[in-house]
Write a structure and sequence with these properties.
alpha/beta; Rossmann fold; 5-stranded parallel beta sheet; 8 helices; 56% helix
Length: 186
């Protein structure tokens, strides 16, 4: 059985790009924890289509509902844990690294300025909007995961096998560094 890999980090740090690159390189299945949560939002009547849905008013409204009802996150996390433990997966998730024992755990970090620039470029929005959205998503997720699981998202990186600061690296450079580490740990 091939180990699974989980990529975590703040919003707009490059998790999806790196995860897809690793999945392709090592012939693993890619899964986005955020996409699983968007499916749950759809079940609640939200139109959660589109990569930038989280950055919309509806996305933020769903994020606010999650603060009131932990059922969404716990149900998704149980599903992700089961899939991760089967092996052969690359999963992006905010919470999974703290909830699993095995596998390869990679944290991508970067400044808020860098995340703002990525989101602004990726989602074609103003710098001010991108800054506010990335900050609000990070702050809300951090508070939610502290309440649900009592870990300090963004501060406690002790569970990770590799931590990469993405600020001064291209996406390909980050992928190359992660590939090198994964080759040693798989």
């Amino acid at each position: 059985m091939t180990k699974s890999i989980v990529i975590s980090g703040p919003p707009a740090v490059g998790k999806t790009t790196v995860a897809k690159g690793l999945a392709e390189e090592f012939q693993l299945q890619y899964l986005s924890g955020g996409d699983g949560l968007k499916e749950m939002a759809k079940e609640q009547g939200f139109d959660s289509d589109g990569d930038d849905w989280w950055d919309t008013d509806d996305g933020m409204k769903f994020l606010n509902q999650r603060e009131q009802n932990s059922e969404f996150d716990k149900k998704l996390d149980d599903k992700l844990i089961a899939l991760f433990n089967q092996g052969g997966m690359v999963i992006t998730s905010y919470t999974l690294p703290w909830l699993i024992k095995d596998g390869i755990k990679i944290w991508l970090e970067g400044s808020h300025t860098s995340s703002t620039e990525r989101m602004q470029s990726r989602d074609n929005m103003s710098s001010e909007d991108a800054y506010e959205i990335t900050k609000e998503r990070f702050d809300k997720n951090k508070a939610l995961y502290k309440k649900l699981y009592n870990f300090d998202f963004g501060d406690d990186t002790s569970v990770f096998d590799l931590i990469i600061n993405t600020d001064n690296l291209t996406a390909q450079q980050v992928i190359d560094v992660t590939k090198e580490t994964v080759r040693k740990l798989l």
